[in-house]
Amino acid sequence: MENRLQHIFLSICLLVVVLVGFTPTTQAATDPSALELEPLVVREPERRKIDIDRLDTEDWEVGVFAGLMNVEDFGTDTLTGVRIAYHVTEDFFVEAQYGMTDLGQTSFERLSGGAQLLTDDQREMSYYNLSVGYNVFPGESFIASRWAFKGGLYVIAGIGSTDFAGDERFTLNVGLGYRLIATDWLAFHFNVRDHIFDSDLLGREETLHNIEFSGGLTIFF
After folding, report:
1. Domain count of the chain?
2. Whole-model pTM above 0.90?
3. Rounded distance between C-alpha atoms, residue 21 and residue 149, angstroms
4. Residues 154 and 204 in one domain
5. Does 12 share its domain with 64?
6. String of b and e for 63-99 (b: at least 16 CB within 10 Å)?
């Protein structure tokens, strides 16, 4: 009798093990077709809208400038003028410029106690020149973290004439400039130039270096 009970008990245990081994969970885990795959969710990155100004294709620019000009032996005075440029290629451009300033007193006039070397009309100095420029480092300028503008550093040199102390004098000019293109039609310029000519105003022939610091704006057309 005891053997029969043990046999029944073992049969029940074996049946339980078989039933547990074939539960739906086990079948789903072993059968790939029974797996239900969750749909793959692809999140699109948030894209920032950027407005890009289109630069005009016109090659001409014209504008005005103002600044300071240090005339050797005469000190530093305000300067105003106009310029027009034509862009021959992306790298090269030619520029015509006209500027004028009023000269102050020389060191001799200040020390002599009233002696005047020039009349009031002769103190009105003006110049014009024709120059060739080359864009050395074209690129972009960043203001804060939101704005980027096209622009770049350029070198420039040319020849012209200066009306100085009542005489016309052949003049060389060399310098550096920076152009900042604010919109598709407006640009800002910052310049440093040396205007070089010979003068014998103080009794001996000497070469004068006259430094110009100016800033201005131009319009493309």
Report:
1. 2
2. no
3. 72
4. yes
5. no
6. bebebebbbbbbeeeebebbbebebeeeeebebbbeb
